[in-house]
Design brief:
This protein is α+β, with helices and mostly antiparallel strands. The protein folds into 2 domains: about 15-55 and about 100-270 and about 305-410, Outer membrane efflux proteins (OEP); about 55-95 and about 270-300. Helices cover about 65% and strands about 10% of the residues. The protein is built from 11 helices and 6 strands. The protein has helices at about 1-10, 20-30, 30-50, 100-165, 170-205, 225-230, 235-245, 245-265, 305-350, 355-370, 375-410, and strands at about 15, 55-60, 85-95, 215, 275-280, 290-295. A hairpin with a 6-residue loop joins strand 5 and strand 6. The radius of gyration is 38 Å and the shape is elongated. The model is unreliable at about 1-10 (pLDDT under 50). Keywords: Coiled coil. This is Cobalt-zinc-cadmium efflux system outer membrane protein. GO terms for molecular function: efflux transmembrane transporter activity.
């Protein structure tokens, strides 16, 4: 069983993805987006339904199945059918007045627009989740490479020290100290791999990938695009957010819907008409009676006062919600913009060549330590400083990407 699991793990495929490819896959495969698109189509079906006229109503009644001595003789209704029998039927058609049908269609069309903006809001949130996970996975993968590089160096030193220990050139405590450092680095690699597995699980759900697939994100220079982007005025960002944010558009649609609902509810005060035509045989002084008529409610008590009041309150509530949404958006844009500027300022303090210099210095220090030109304590102090600085640089780039995506999210479009 254990062997089979090991074979299965070796059979897994590695999928190397650039960020743009991952987003294309996400838009094509994500099940939540597919489901929400179906909700839009369902809402469009409500518009189709609202456009349909009410069906006419047909009734057949007053048929006597037997006759007695009081039946007055009458000729057959059709052929030999209906002699000395009574029969009546009626056709009625409901006519909606005050443009209720058009007003209902207008309401349903606003609901379609609301469903579309809800889809955009879902897409906006899932995009942020996808991009942050991609950035996080790339950060973890790069950090694993840093630790693996240190692990390879320590492993070579451990093997060399084992030979020197056998020859009695070094003390056993030095060898154990080196092995302890190697074990600690490998433990960090294991924890990072666990973290990578958790991030990959989220990405596979978003991209609808096979669970056995291993994702590897191609490094496209994290933070580079953000650093090179020209500055944008804060006022421009506020305007772009008002134009692009789905939740603000949704709030506008709620207000529009409330106004249209008030118009529709006021139209309910006017009663609908029901036109009818009926035929009655043997039911009156005439053998074959054909009549027409019209019926309507008399709006003495119910003039839809409650529905109108409810719609008026909905308008006020929609206005308040729109103001609150706009205030929240402006605060969110300002905070994310400020956070991005702070993250960029910190990243700009990192010299472009500093990371290369660190890697070169690690090689030199490892060589000096192998040649016994520096002590173990000095080497480990430098290694820890090297590791901390590498993490700071990677975290700074990751933070810039996260802050940039948060700003995109708060504006509602990619800058």
């Amino acid at each position: 069983m254990l062997v089979a699991s090991a074979i299965g793990l070796k059979a897994q495929e590695t999928l190397r993805l650039a960020r743009q490819d991952a987003e294309a896959l996400f838009l094509q495969n994500n099940l939540l987006l597919i489901s929400e698109k179906l909700h839009i189509e369902r809402q469009k079906a409500e518009v189709i339904q609202a456009k349909l006229w009410p069906n006419p109503e047909f009734s057949l009644n007053e048929i006597n199945l037997w006759k007695n001595s009081t039946v007055e003789p009458s000729p057959p209704f059709f052929g030999n059918i209906g002699q000395n029998q009574q029969i009546a039927f009626e056709i009625n058609q409901l006519i909606l007045t005050a443009g209720k049908r058009k007003k209902l269609i207008a309401l349903e069309q606003v609901d379609v627009s609301k469903a579309e903006q809800y889809f955009e809001e879902l897409l906006r949130g899932l995009k942020l989740e996808l991009r942050n996970n991609l950035t996080e996975l790339l950060y973890v993968q790069q950090l694993v490479k840093v630790y693996e590089n240190l692990s390879q160096n320590i492993s070579k030193l451990t093997s060399a020290y084992a030979n020197q220990l056998d020859k009695g050139y070094i003390s056993k405590s030095e060898s154990i100290r080196l092995k302890a450092e190697e074990l600690e680095i490998n433990k960090e690699i294991l924890e990072l791999n666990h973290q990578s597995n958790e991030i990959q699980k989220q990405l596979k759900l978003l991209l609808r990938l096979d669970p056995i697939t291993t994702l590897e994100i191609i490094n496209e220079g994290v933070g580079t695009n953000v650093k090179s982007h020209p500055p944008i005025l804060l006022e421009q960002m506020f305007e772009r957010a008002k134009e692009s944010r789905p939740d603000y558009k949704y709030a506008l649609l709620e207000e529009e819907y409330s106004h249209k609902l008030l118009v529709y509810e006021k139209a309910q005060r006017i009663p609908d008409l029901k036109f009818g035509m009926n035929y009655d045989r043997n039911g009156s002084t005439m053998l074959n009676f054909v009549g027409v008529g019209v019926s309507m409610d008399l709006p003495f008590f119910n003039r839809n006062q409650g529905g109108i009041k409810k719609a008026q309150i909905s308008i006020e509530n929609a206005k308040i919600h729109k103001k609150q949404t706009l205030l929240s958006i402006e605060n969110e844009v300002f905070l994310t913009y400020k956070s991005l500027q702070q993250a960029l300022d910190f990243l700009r303090h990192v010299d472009a060549n500093y990371e290369v210099e660190l890697d070169d210095l690690l090689k030199k220090q490892t060589k000096n330590f192998t040649s016994r030109n520096v002590s173990m304590l000095e080497y480990f102090d430098f290694m820890h400083a090297y590791l901390n600085n590498k993490k700071i640089i990677l975290e700074a780039r990751r933070d810039v990407e996260h802050r940039a995506e948060e700003l995109n999210y708060s504006i509602g479009r990619d800058l």
